[in-house]
Amino acid sequence: MMNHRMNIRKNRRNLFLGPMGLVALLVLGLPEKSQAQITSTAVPFMLIAPDARASGMGDEGTGLPEGVGAIYYNPAGLAFQTGRDVSLTHSQWLPQFNQPDLFYDYLDFKWNDDSSFGGTIAASIVFLNLGTFIYTTEASPNPITTFHSFEYAVTAAYATKLSNDWGFGGSLRYIQSTLSTLHVANEQSNGVGESVSFDLSALWKPDSTYIDGIGNALEVGFILADVGPKIKYVDALQADPLPTELRVGASYKLYSDQYNEITVASDVGKLLVHRDPGSITADPLPKSFITSWDTSTVHSFMWSSGVEYWYDQLLALRAGYYTEGYDVGGRNYLTFGAGLRYDAYQFDFSYIDALVQDSPLANTLRFTLGIKF
């Protein structure tokens, strides 16, 4: 059991600043000095790359949305896929904490049938268990009770081809964040928030272009993710925005022969969230689509790059690098991964080298098992 001691104050804004900062640390592995920046959004678990294949390539996936994991990175990639797939990802999240009840699970499914519904349908559920917390008061450090914190989201998606080269995808999502089930002081609300969101995405996969060698090798993707109303924990004035994000990515198959295939890919993302310094109120949508591009924009991008090598479509090796501006946490890390494909089964894993001593992200592993049927 993860025992986090939490002192809940009577001040309404302080009620969830402590837990939200802790959630940012537990979810994204941020150093404490970065929490003030990342907690400008609720449910940061929605930013965790859920698939071991893509996470082994630096969390890249918008420009290379392969497999059923495309439902997260770029649902439009599902339009170019066939058959039915299911996959399950598990990660003992942030193992540096050595807490067995801090874990992340992700289950997804897709089914392509152009004759029945003109494209591909898909669904996923993600669950982040944050553990059990101890409740105390300012008057005494003695434990009063405990409560369990967790977050989850359920997504349904659809994708179809607009032409041979273009795919379009969209998703609808329900999100619940249970940071606390306790009512505090005179507050009538507890730490449970709910919201809904949607994604819109596109993917260009040209089979021929004006430039020799680009056809059937280049992919360019776009996604506007997690667009939806704020999550209210205490009251509407202090509601926290979703991590609405714009991502653009591309991939290119550098080399391919009978047995070998090498692909490189890169993404860039930007949170479309803005809160004035010192303010408890974040700009609403669609206003934040504009106000998030301010003087600090150069320090708010998130970059992912990776390379993947396949031998005979049986064994894969991957490596990647992720970096982000200090306004969104300032994390930098290397990733490595591998995959094994046999018949209808595929197994992938990824590993994070955090590049920083004592980083909570260090040695984080993800494991994904996929089945085609």
Topology pattern, helix = H, strand = E: EHHHHEEHEEEEEEEHEEEEE
Shape: globular
CATH topology: Porin
Q: Strand count, sense and closure of the main sheet?
A: 14 strands, antiparallel, barrel
**Category by helix and strand content:** mainly beta
Strand content: over 45%
Task: Calculate Rg over CA atoms.
Answer: 21 Å
Number of domains: 1
**Mean pLDDT, as a whole number?**
86
Arrangement of strands in the largest sheet: 2-3-4-5-6-7-8-9-10-11-12-13-14-15
CATH classification class: Mainly Beta
How many angstroms does the end-to-end distance come to?
A: 38 Å
Describe the structure.
This protein has 373 residues and is mostly beta strands. It has a single domain, classed as monomeric porin ompg (Porin), CATH 2.40.160. The protein has six helices and 15 strands. It has helices at residues 14-28, 35-38, 52-55, 70-73, 114-117, 287-291; strands at 3-7, 84-91, 103-113, 119-136, 145-161, 166-180, 191-204, 218-227, 245-256, 260-271, 301-311, 315-324, 332-342, 345-353, 365-372. The protein has a 14-stranded antiparallel beta barrel. Strand 4 and strand 5 form a beta hairpin. The protein is globular, with a radius of gyration of 21 Å. Residues 1-19 and 32-37 have low confidence and may be disordered.
